[in-house]
Every structure is written in C-alpha cells, then in structure tokens.
Amino acid sequence: MSHNLLKGKKGIIFGALDSNSIAWKVAERCHEEGAVFTLTNAPIAMRMGAINTLAEKCNAQIIPADVTSDTDMENLIDKSMEILGGKIDFILHSVGMSLNIRKGKHYTDLDYEFMKKTLDISAISYHRLLKICYQKDAISEWGSTVALTYIAAQRVFPDYNEMADAKSLLESITRGWGFHYGKAKKVRVNTISQSPTKTTAGSGVKGFDGFFNYADSMSPLGNATSDSCADYCVLMFSDLSKMVTMQNLFHDGGFSFTGVSQETVEKFNS
Amino acid sequence: MSHNLLKGKKGIIFGALDSNSIAWKVAERCHEEGAVFTLTNAPIAMRMGAINTLAEKCNAQIIPADVTSDTDMENLIDKSMEILGGKIDFILHSVGMSLNIRKGKHYTDLDYEFMKKTLDISAISYHRLLKICYQKDAISEWGSTVALTYIAAQRVFPDYNEMADAKSLLESITRGWGFHYGKAKKVRVNTISQSPTKTTAGSGVKGFDGFFNYADSMSPLGNATSDSCADYCVLMFSDLSKMVTMQNLFHDGGFSFTGVSQETVEKFNS
Amino acid sequence: MSHNLLKGKKGIIFGALDSNSIAWKVAERCHEEGAVFTLTNAPIAMRMGAINTLAEKCNAQIIPADVTSDTDMENLIDKSMEILGGKIDFILHSVGMSLNIRKGKHYTDLDYEFMKKTLDISAISYHRLLKICYQKDAISEWGSTVALTYIAAQRVFPDYNEMADAKSLLESITRGWGFHYGKAKKVRVNTISQSPTKTTAGSGVKGFDGFFNYADSMSPLGNATSDSCADYCVLMFSDLSKMVTMQNLFHDGGFSFTGVSQETVEKFNS
Amino acid sequence: MSHNLLKGKKGIIFGALDSNSIAWKVAERCHEEGAVFTLTNAPIAMRMGAINTLAEKCNAQIIPADVTSDTDMENLIDKSMEILGGKIDFILHSVGMSLNIRKGKHYTDLDYEFMKKTLDISAISYHRLLKICYQKDAISEWGSTVALTYIAAQRVFPDYNEMADAKSLLESITRGWGFHYGKAKKVRVNTISQSPTKTTAGSGVKGFDGFFNYADSMSPLGNATSDSCADYCVLMFSDLSKMVTMQNLFHDGGFSFTGVSQETVEKFNS
Questions:
Q1: Which residue segments constitute the domains of chain A, with CATH numbers given?
Q2: Which residues of chain D lie closer than 8 angstroms to A127, CB-CB?
Q3: How much is the ipTM here?
Q4: Alpha-helix residue ranges (DSSP H) falling in chain A
C-alpha cells in the first residue's frame, strides 16, 4: 500500500544486484511511494545481475558506475539530474565489498592493498559521492542520504573481518558529511544498521547460518528482513524525518541492545 | 498533508498541556494521519490546560490519570479500549516533572523523597504503563510506544539536574520492556531524544535561553521543533518502522554527534 | 607485591561481605598498597558476614551504616575522618540489592515500592554518599570514588531484572556528580563495569551459571576475576589516573565490545 | 616517584618527536617505572627531532621505521627483541598525520589519494604493527598495546577533518585485534582518547587555541596534560589492568560526558 511518502521525489539507488538485495526492495518501495530514480551498480555487478527487470518495473534508467572513479560518479550525478529533471532528493548507498574476505585472508593476515581497496569501495565511496554532489550542488535542501551498515562497526563479529573497519569508517564519514552538508545546505546524512540479511552478498560470508540464527535468537522481534528495511529507508527519505541526521539507526529487531537471550544462556548451561 | 500512515490505528497520548506541548502537536498529526485516540494528563495539569480545545479538534475523549497510581492507569487503559473499540496500537509518553527543580534544590543538594517522586512520575510511570498494558494484553501485535527523553541521559547538562537521572532510568526501562514485550507480543518500545523545545515546561528551566541557543548553534540543522518531532512520532507509530525497538532515537538536527561548532570555538578564541 | 600506589591514602570501603566479595579483595589490595581505611556495610549484612576477619587483617575499623539513612551516612563520614585523621582520598561503593529479585517478581511484574527501595539502596545511595561528603567537604582534592556496576545498564540481560535500571541510574548519578564535584573540588567519580563474578550475591541470580559461561566465552580474555577487579580499583584510586572522571570503565576481558564468539556461533549452527 | 609498575618490562614507543610529545613523556615515565624500551619514529621526523636526548636519558636505542612499510616494521620488531632480550610487553602507538590537513584541503574537498595515505599512516599502521607482532609471536602473554586517539572519532570537530575518520578506523582496528590477539595470546589492545594537547603536532591544527579553551571549559577537571596521559599509559601497560581490552579509554578530565558547561551557556545568553 502506498502512502505517497515520496511523491515527486527524485533519487539514486546504489546496489540492486538481484531480488535478494536490500537495494532492490528499496527501489520497489520508493517506486510505490511515488518517487522517480536512477539505478546504479558496478559495471561488473550489472553483467551478472537482473537489474534490467527492476529497471523496467520501476520505470528507471540504469547508469553503471564504479564508485571508486570520480569520472563515473560525476557522470552518474549529471545523468541522474538530467534524466530526473532536477536536483536529487534522496540517495541509497548500499555498497560494500571486501577483497580480503574474497581472497580468504583472515583478519590477522590482511593484505593492506586489498584493505585500501575495500575501504575505497565500501566507505570512501560515500565520501566521494557526497563530495561530488556537494560541489555540483546536486542535492535539494532537506534531501536525505542513507548508507547501509552493520553493527560490526561497534562490536567484533570475527567473520565480518575487515568489513567491520570499513563500516566504522563509513559511519564516521556519515557524521562528518552530516555536519558539513547539514550546515551548508540542510542535507541529511545517516546510516541504517541492518540485521544480518539473506542477500546474495550476505549469505556468502563464512559461518553465516549460525550467525543468522544467533542474531535472530538475540533479537526480541527476530531479524529484520530486507522488506522491512526498505520501509525504513522510505521513512528516512521522507519529509517526516527532516531533523534526523548524523545518526546510525539500528534496524535490527532489538539486537543492538540485547545483552543475552534466554535461549543463548541455556546453550551455555552445562 | 496526510499520508494515512495511522489509518484505523488506536492510541493514547499523554502530556498535552497546551499548544506549545510536543504531545499537542503529536495529537494533531496523529489525527491528520487517520488515528483515533484518547488524551490523558494529570488531573491537576488538566485544570490549568487547554486540552478541551485539542480534544474537540481531534474528536478525542480525555481521561485524567495520575501516572503514579495503578488505579488511574488501569482505568485509563480500560476506558481507552472501551472508547476506541479494541486494543491499543500506539502510545506517546510525554511525562516528566522534577520536584527538586521546582523547589529550587541544586543537584548537589537533592531531597531524596522529592527525587523518588520525580523518578516515579518521569520514568517508573513508563514501566507502570507498560506493565498494566502487558497484564491486560492491551497492546496489539506490532504496537508501538514512544517516550520522550533528552540527551542529558548521556551527558551532563548542569541545569537539567535530577531530570537527567530520571531520563537515564526511563531509557533503561525502555530497553527492558522492549526486550520482554517484543519477545512476548511483538510490541515495540522506544524513546525519542528531542532537541530542547520551547514548551511551557522546557522554557521554565533556568538558563533555558542560552542553552537553547547553544544547542541551536551546535546542531547542523538547528534545533528540531515540536512540529517535526510530531512527524517523527508518527513514523515511529506507523507500520513502516516495525523492526525498530529498544532504541533511543535522537531527533535533534545532529546535536548528538557534533563535538563543537565553529561558532562555539570562536567564542573561546581569546 | 606492593607498588605503594596508595601510600598514606585514606579510604572508605563499602560492601565487603565475605571473602568472595569484590570489596573484600579491594580492601586487601588497598591495604597492601599502603592505604588506611574504614569498612562499612549494612548492619544486617554484617551480622551474617565475616567482616571482622578482614578488619583485623587490614587493621581497619568497621562502621555499620544503612546506605539509605542520612544519619548513618553522616556518622560514617564523620567517624571515618576522625579515625583516619583527615579527609578521605578514595571510596569504593559496592552496594546493590534488588527486592523484586529477592521476592521472585519478574521484570514484567515489578512491585514499585520494592523498586524504589532497590533504587534507593543501589543507586541513590551513591548520590547520598557524595552529597554528604560534598557538604562536609570530606574528600581531598583529586580524591577518587568508584562504584561497581554491570553492563546490563547498557543492554538487556533478562535475569538481571530491575537491577539493570538501578545500574543505569547509578551511572547517570556518576556523571552528574563527576561534573559537579570535579568542577568544585577536583574530585573524580567513576564506575567500573565488571564481568559477572562468582560472589555470594552474584551467584544467587537465576541462571547464573549459563550466564557466567556465556560471558566467559564471549570475552576474549575470559571473565575478569574479583582479584583483577581489585587491582583495577587500586589504579583508579591512585594518583596516576587523575584526569579520568565521569567514566564507566569496562573491566570485563573484552566482553563489552565482542558481538559474538566463534563458540557461540557454533552453538547456533543447525 | 617510581612505583616500579613496569619493572623488567620491555617495550616499544612510537612517536616521540620533541619534549612536547605525549610519547616523550610516556618514555620518561616508563623509564622511571623500570621499563626498558626502544624508541621509533619516521626517518624524516627523526631528522627534525630531538629524540637523541630522550634516548640518552632513557638509555634507549632508536630504530627508525616508516609505519607504512612492512620491511621497516619487521626490522623494528626483530631489532627491538634482539636489543631488549626477549618478547615485547608493551607498545605505545602515537602516530598520526593528515595529508589533507597539511595540504589545506577542507573535509568537503578531500583528495582520496591523500586520504588513503592518512589512513595508512594513522590507522592501518596499528593493524600492520599488530599483524607483524602476531605473526612473529613477538608480544608476551598479557602484553599491552595502547594507541592514542581523539574523541573526534565519536563526534564531529570540524577542524579535525579526515583525522576523525582515521581515528574511527584506528578504534575499530583496536577492537578487531583486541578480540583476535586476546583470544589467541592474551594480548591486550586499547586506545586512550586524550584531551587536546599542546604538542607540536596538535598546536598546528587550525583554530587550536579556541578549541583548546573550549575543551578546557567543558572538562570539569580541565584538559588533561601530556604528563597525566603518560601516567595513564603506565597504568595500562602495568599488570594491574590485565583484564582491560578492546576499550577506548577517555582521559580528558570529563569532557566526553559533559553536554555543556555553565561558561559555555553564558556565552550564548543574548
């Protein structure tokens, strides 16, 4: 059901790979709520993905972009404004990739060239995006940007590896830009810290199932799905959350403030 | 403009004193968004207040209740369900009063009987409310309750006095009930931590103006108004934030993550 | 081995019940490090306890005091200064008792008269203590007070019940007094948030063993013992931590920043 | 006065540039407390610095090392063990440099090659150091490492620029290594978050004086000096803080938990 929360709003959505992606659900929901937007992803991800189906469904154009390239990102912003007919009102940044995880390097044995690439793709890309928007004055007043993050930025989840560090950096960049962009242009910058989600990316992480079940047991409402995450993104893009900025918003069924569940304690009773 | 975010939802709103109250704005916005609700306040506050005007405007009935009385609170819940025709979907708890502040007692000279009364009114009341609802099974699945709080629960604002302690207690109770009520009945329990607001209550605090200006300067988007707070409450009551619970949500224009503003630094340049 | 870290310092130690108490270990270590101090506990606790043995060992006098009584607390401060020959340099507050737990009342069914008593004993007592010291100017410049707390103040541990709320209140009081006493007299006020500890009090909590094992598995260094906690208290009382105040210091082998351990994840692999 | 807290301990101290450096004070205090150690700094920093004076005073050898070079860091660890005659017990990481600040690039106009260099020097260097130690098994059981950080990792201080992001990354790395190194070898990894300090590096930051005064006004005990920071480092290196790991320890006179001071509010009274 639509509430017309984003009627007439213009956006850019990063990271829709396939129908398991959170970004895919966000696109569907933004479309339902009356927004128009462009879709973007890494050129390589798009070759593997089903993004055309989504684009048709949402009547959206696709603009491939490497998030580590200034040229690609400038092109993305310019084209999006041209296609959508004006400044951008909202952006979803759902981008992350760990080269060390992909190469099987443990946290105690990181390759630092890989790590810098991970940070560039997963965190600095948010800075780059906002810098280019800022310099082009491409975001409307009270515009809202959201990046997806994970609680490993606050506490150690060993299999999350260097991605934890990337997410900490991402959240710091969120505060930094939230301050400067808010002060200058009233643009809002936040992260949403989502439950472990059975996306194509998420499921690939080692030990994902045990971890997913643990998080589910430790969350009074259970793990949040990508559908509910999409709803929450819509709220954060809407005009009804105008004064929320520089925040990391936990969307996790209560996981973040649960110290232990009874089910967990019972497993440790000898 | 209405988005029908609360269409058919039933609620209880505590704390509307006059048109400067955040609760007043919340009532107006919930009404616009399609909710029906009852209004409540302390019997004494109602004698002073203009709440009848609000009740008429929102087509709501008023049920006086002393938040420290089990009998009154039980009556409030029973009557509300009777009037609204079923279980409650949302509750706003906007209740706080400091006897030590009122009596001019400094934080270093608190009267502990006053303090216990302050805690009872301002924090334990949220526990009492949720306990009675829980025992009567009075809240719908996925129902949502919000209490208003302030960042003095995390950091010291000297003039906020013992109210800081009351807000810490309130936020802890929020986590406790969020866990238990979520687990048992999928009810959500959160707080919203609002900018200093020029309500009749807020303005009474000593040194309020300097403090208000400071917070405004330290918030990249400026202080959040009670109107925008009402919008945010609507979002938290809606079905689009279903997996958010046990959280303290800063609604403050970015104050909470700003360490210093340039304006502030300049005042300290000699 | 002594480092003479507290040579010539005068203190008051609350809460030594028997040789399993953290406060007992703190007293032993303070004695080793050259401090003189008085011991105090509730009159009723002392009748059950072995505190005389400790007093002899440490050459300390015992002053019974009900922490909820102004008269008792004033007597404690006056007598301590008289016995020790001057102002107090350090205080350990290791005091907590939950009437609702003792009476078997679940968090969802609290008795509020019990709760207020719990808050009075476990949290307001720290305020009362500091207020009386402040008004008598009983603590030396750079004096240091520590109260013991637990991470349930930040996250929900269901069996910890209302004690979580009491600890949140305690930590807020710590910040409040840390501000005011620091500003006025350079006195430091902190809490130490200790691992679950097999004290006579701690072990009594329902489900303690499973919980203890869980915390041990989730702490990279394992649970901290009361001996190591005593060492840490000595550091916080010493002159080498002079600029640390208003803090909640986790002493927990890393539990507080561990999201999950591999052992825990494995238990959730189906 | 020495307490022999580090008697017989072997360490490595990074970052002593001149007598205003925190690392310089740490070296002096570690020497007093009975430790032996090597000193290291970037080759270029050493050419400018007065480190030889310190080395003589502490009877320490100097090993130049570029923290971004594996070869240099391996050499540093190997040589230090050789010189000191065994495994390392403590390390101070006081390393940070922002190329964007140096080049006058504002946060809204960062150069990302500079930023990656900043992250490499200021944050990844701590990972590299610990990785090399881990792989060489170069740190004793219960060994302790401390990196210096700043509260800009949590809240925005605009002039701190990208260094805030570097410090967030550093603190995340601290948690990651604290977990893995603690689990495997009982090595502790922490950061100390220090008040603004009038070091040669600190003073260079734009607007430093106003900022220093502001922090001083907002800290009930005033800003912590580098001398007191050195004392606190000694405590964290000692055996008396054995169960403290993965923590960010504020050493700031109470700044971190002060929301506002009366002096600050007064400046905002119109």
A1: 10-268 (3.40.50.720)
A2: 110, 112, 115
A3: 0.97
A4: 22-32, 43-48, 51-58, 70-84, 99-102, 112-119, 125-136, 163-185, 200-203, 208-218, 226-237, 262-268
